[in-house]
Amino acid sequence: MLRGQQERLRKKLAQIDAALRKKPAKSPRVIERRIGKWLGRNTAAEKLFAVEVLVGKGRAVGLRVSEDPSKTEWAQAAHGAYLLRTNCTEEDPGKLWRWYIQLTEVEDAFRTSKSDLGLRPVFHQKEDRVQAHILVCFLALVMWRTLELWLKAKAMGDTARQVVQELGTIHSMDLLFNVRDRGETRLRLVSKPEPLAADLLAHLGLKLPTRPKIIENVVEKNRL
């Protein structure tokens, strides 16, 4: 792939250079954007080329293209390889790779808290709030990993996100009414799951309550 992108860039840059030498362009910036577009289409090879637009009398009259042999040799040697840089003194590559995967899982927990758990970005200005945000993200990671391991133990594969989405179709509703000798009473009802959600619950060994439940000591939401 690297060699193919190099050839495409060489060919295209040579075509642009030949066209400019035959008929200079009025705007060098337009040519620069055109070159940037082609470099962006060939990201594996773009760093191997140094391209300069030659300007004469305010017009783009050609290109000066050069390739660094040392960069080409390094790109060919590293292409398709995964390089990790760390300040850890551990020499076992297996351990370093596992630590790196754990890091990616922590980063994924931040995305999980914002997407799957529906927590919006919050900007903090106090250290204790920052620590609390980190705790929430850590709990999101723990919950997510627990769900993944639970699904694997049930031979359900790596389908945590699909399970959360499907179980999200199950809703609960609170009914408020006055009862003699009890005053205001709150009953919580759970909706009947859709067939797919019901199958997931059965595989996980979970049962939804089928009878209303009296809920007490509910903290009402503050309305602004």
From TrEMBL:
InterPro entries: RNaseH-like_sf. SUPFAM superfamilies: Ribonuclease H-like. This is Transposase IS4-like domain-containing protein.
